[in-house]
């Protein structure tokens, strides 16, 4: 028996408290720690990153944030020591694991989320209310800091600057464009230019290591025929709650739900089934769908789909354009989730 829902009928109303409560590590990193990170012995920078973050956490523990008093009491100086730490490196070297480990080790009010989740939070609450909410935190972690959107980058730079002035400790990671994956390096000069006042308050560490995504996009499983979707769903997702949607209807529905609410929109969903997947041709629509892909990946939700293969979800122009890293990440993550659904349908070996 499968309990069927539709994402395209869900419009969650989310309070400020509920939005902020979502800024915790995803289930994939819900129990990680520095002790569970396995540095590559051939890459000394990985072990160095662990030591640096542990020291950063110990230092921050003795410098509690002063919150709103500092924020509204005039231009406050950042406390002695670094306000922030910045981990730079290619995909697959463990930056999110390390950032989540830092979050777990720190006591007190704290937040962790992706760059996009913070910009969505500002969009949902307003910039000033976001500053007010986060200024009471001891630590704010920003994963996958992006430089491909000048407007969002300036917004986040300003947010980080105001939080640092309020005494909040900051930790961030960078996410390199696929076109630069050969060296996997983030341009520290660009970072310093964009962050401006905060630049000299950040300790920037490059983490070396093999980039697991530079080999190109994985090939997704073959789409399921529409006539087989129901049988596969009943077989693979028995006893689960499954969101079944026409792909076009779902894509249209996303325009009416703020991306900050996509996490709540997926509440209670164990798997998704999409009928008639097609290539998305509008940039704004595609960027919204990237956010949904990230939330599905965070919750480890298997995908069963008919129509176009998932590596054709975005146009060739999008995959080669300024937002290419978002689309590469989305296709990679959706493909991984589709493979999970495929593996569910493979009979267990006998013996």
TrEMBL record:
Gene Ontology molecular-function annotations: ATP binding; ATP hydrolysis activity
The keyword ATP-binding appears for this protein: yes
InterPro entries listed in its UniProt record: ATPase_AFG1-like (IPR005654), P-loop_NTPase (IPR027417)
SUPFAM superfamilies: P-loop containing nucleoside triphosphate hydrolases
Gene3D superfamilies for the chain: P-loop containing nucleotide triphosphate hydrolases
Keywords for the protein's UniProt record, in alphabetical order: ATP-binding, Cell cycle, Cell division, Nucleotide-binding
Matches recorded under Pfam families: AFG1_ATPase
CC annotations in GO: cytoplasm
NCBIfam families tied to this protein: ZapE
Protein name as it appears in the record: Cell division protein ZapE
Organism: Arthrobacter glacialis
